[in-house]
C-alpha cells in the first residue's frame, strides 16, 4: 500500500509519520517550493501532544514549545477576572504547548525526511486532479517550477491541502464560499519580556474587540487580535486571501488605550516584525468527507474558527486515526470508511463548539462564573476529557 498525501502542513506530515509507524508507505506533495519556519504561533492541546509524544517527538516538541500553565481572563486594564489552569496543571497527563507554527512544521518535515527518506516529500509540486479507478488512484501533479505535469498512482489519496482544498472541491463541488464569522483577525509575534508566569495565556475582550497573547519562546509573545466587523455571512472572494499582510494603522485604533500593566498592548502590536490579516471563517460540517480511495484530513476536511485552539490538534488526531484504521482494515476503502466513522462526527462537534464558544463569549459579562461556564461547556462539547483524562488505547496499533 502506498498513500499519497496532498499537503505538507501539520496534518499531512503527521499523517506521513503515522503511516510509516504502522508500516504503510507514504509520499507527500506540497505546493510551496521550500518548507521554512514561517508564520506565527498556535496551540497544541494535550490530546494532540500525546499523539506526537507517541510518535517519538516529545523531546523535540518540548524544545521548541512553551508548556502553557494557565489561561488568564482579564479586562483591558489587566484586572484578573478568571484564571484556569491548563495542561498538566489542570490534571491532564500531557502538557499543552504553545509553539511557532513554522518551527513545528519544520520539526515534522525533518522527522519525515529522516524516517521515510529524503524523497518522501516533494516540494513545489501541486495536485491538480485525480481519478479513483477502483483499484488505485491516479493523481495529476504539476511542477510549479517547470510547469511539467505527470500522473502518479497510489493506493489512496489524502487531501490535506488546506482550507482551499483541491481534493475537497472535486469531492464536494458546488459548496460555495466559505462562511465568514464577521470577525477579522490580525496575528503577530513580538520579541519582548515574559509576562505573568512566563507560561500564561492572557485573554481580554471588550465588546466586539479581543486580544489573546501567549509566549511561544522565552523571548517571543504571539498575539491574536479579533475585531467584529459585520454579521456572519458568505465570504466574498476578495476577502478570502489567507495570511495576507496586514496594516498596523487598521488595527491599532481598536487597542490604543489598552494597557494591562504587565503588557502594553499598543507596544506589543507595534513591535511585531510580521503582521498577518485574514477573516475568521469556516464551513458547514460535512456528513462524509470522501469516497472509495480518497478522503480528507485537517483543514480540508473541517475548517474551523480558531476559537478553542483546536485546529492543529484535530489535524493530528485525524492523522493518527487514519493510520490506525488503514493498518487494521481489510482493504483501503474499508480503512478510509472506518477513519471517517471515527472522525467526521467528532470534528463536526468541534466546529460547532467553536462557534458556540465565540457566541457565548461575546454575550458574556465580565464575570468569573461566565468564563468558567463557557470553558467547561467547550470541553464537554468537544470531548476533551475522553481523549486525555482516561487511559484509552494508543491510536497506533501495538502501541
List the helices and strands and how they pair.
Blueprint: E1 2-6, H1 10-21, E2 25-30, E3 41-44, H2 46-54, H3 58-64, E4 65-67, E5 70-74, E6 80-85, E7 97-100, H4 101-116, E8 121-123, E9 125-132, E10 137-143, E11 149-154, E12 156-159, H5 166-171, E13 179-191, E14 200-206, E15 209-217, E16 220-228, E17 233-234, E18 244-245, H6 248-251, H7 265-270, E19 275-282, E20 294-296, H8 311-328, H9 332-363, H10 368-382, H11 384-388
Parallel strand pairs: 1-2, 1-12, 2-8, 5-14, 12-20
Antiparallel strand pairs: 3-7, 4-7, 5-6, 9-10, 10-11, 13-16, 13-17, 13-19, 14-15, 15-16, 18-19
Helix pairs in contact: 1-4, 1-8, 2-8, 8-9, 9-10
Organism: Streptomyces luteireticuli
Domain FAD-binding: 2-172, 287-351
Protein name: Flavin-dependent oxidoreductase
In brief, what are we looking at here?
InterPro entries: FAD-bd, FAD-dep_Monooxygenase_BioMet, FAD/NAD-bd_sf. It holds the Pfam family FAD_binding_3. With 399 residues, the chain is an alpha+beta fold.
**Tally of DSSP β-strands:** 20
Q: How would you name the oligomeric state of the polypeptide chains in this document?
A: single chain
Report how far apart the termini are.
Answer: 21 Å
Mean pLDDT: 91
Query: What is the overall silhouette?
Result: globular
Coarse structural class: alpha+beta
Number of helices: 11
Q: Could you name the ranges where pLDDT drops below 50 across 5 or more consecutive residues?
A: 388-393
* Percentage beta strand: 25-35%
Helix content: 25-40%
Rg, please?
A: 21 Å
Amino acid at each position: 500500500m502506498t498513500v499519497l498525501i496532498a499537503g505538507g502542513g501539520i496534518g499531512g506530515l503527521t499523517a506521513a509519520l503515522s503511516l510509516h509507524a504502522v508500516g504503510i508507505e507514504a509520499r507527500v506533495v506540497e505546493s510551496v517550493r521550500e518548507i521554512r519556519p514561517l508564520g506565527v504561533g498556535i496551540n497544541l492541546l494535550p490530546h494532540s501532544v500525546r499523539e506526537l509524544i507517541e510518535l517519538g517527538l516529545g523531546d523535540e516538541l518540548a524544545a521548541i514549545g512553551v508548556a502553557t500553565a494557565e489561561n488568564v481572563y482579564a479586562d483591558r486594564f489587566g484586572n484578573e477576572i478568571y484564571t484556569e489552569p491548563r495542561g498538566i496543571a489542570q490534571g491532564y497527563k500531557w502538557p499543552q504547548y504553545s509553539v511557532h507554527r513554522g518551527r513545528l512544521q519544520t520539526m515534522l518535515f525533518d522527522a519525515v525526511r529522516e524516517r521515510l527518506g529524503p524523497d518522501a516529500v516533494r516540494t513545489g509540486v501541486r495536485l491538480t486532479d485525480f481519478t479513483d479507478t477502483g483499484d488505485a488512484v491516479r493523481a495529476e501533479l504539476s511542477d510549479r517550477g517547470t510547469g511539467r505535469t505527470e500522473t502518479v498512482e497510489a493506493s489512496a489519496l489524502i487531501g490535506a491541502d488546506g482550507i482551499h482544498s483541491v481534493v475537497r472541491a472535486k469531492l464536494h463541488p458546488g459548496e460555495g464560499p466559505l462562511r465568514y464569522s464577521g470577525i477579522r483577525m490580525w496575528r503577530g509575534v513580538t520579541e519582548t519580556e515574559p509576562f505573568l508566569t512566563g507560561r500564561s495565556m492572557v485573554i481580554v475582550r471588550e465588546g466586539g474587540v479581543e486580544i489573546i497573547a501567549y509566549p511561544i519562546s522565552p523571548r517571543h509573545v504571539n498575539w491574536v487580535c479579533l475585531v467584529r466587523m459585520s454579521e456572519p455571512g458568505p465570504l466574498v472572494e476578495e476577502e478570502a486571501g489567507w495570511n495576507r499582510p496586514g496594516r498596523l494603522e487598521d488595527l491599532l485604533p481598536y487597542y490604543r488605550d489598552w494597557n494591562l500593566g504587565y503588557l502594553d498592548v499598543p507596544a506589543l502590536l507595534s513591535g511585531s516584525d510580521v503582521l498577518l490579516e485574514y477573516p475568521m471563517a469556516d464551513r458547514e460540517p460535512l456528513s462524509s468527507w470522501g469516497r472509495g480511495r480518497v478522503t480528507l484530513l485537517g483543514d480540508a476536511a473541517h475548517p474551523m474558527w480558531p476559537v478553542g485552539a483546536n485546529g492543529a490538534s484535530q489535524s493530528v488526531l485525524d492523522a493518527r486515526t487514519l493510520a490506525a484504521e488503514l493498518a487494521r482494515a481489510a482493504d483501503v476503502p474499508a480503512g478510509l470508511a472506518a477513519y471517517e466513522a471515527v472522525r467526521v462526527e467528532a470534528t463536526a462537534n468541534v466546529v460547532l463548539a467553536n462557534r458556540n464558544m465565540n457566541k457565548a463569549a461575546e454575550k458574556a459579562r465580565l464575570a468569573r462564573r461566565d468564563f468558567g461556564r463557557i470553558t467547561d461547556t467547550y470541553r464537554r462539547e468537544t470531548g476533551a476529557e475522553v481523549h486525555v483524562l482516561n487511559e484509552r488505547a494508543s491510536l497506533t496499533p501495538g502501541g
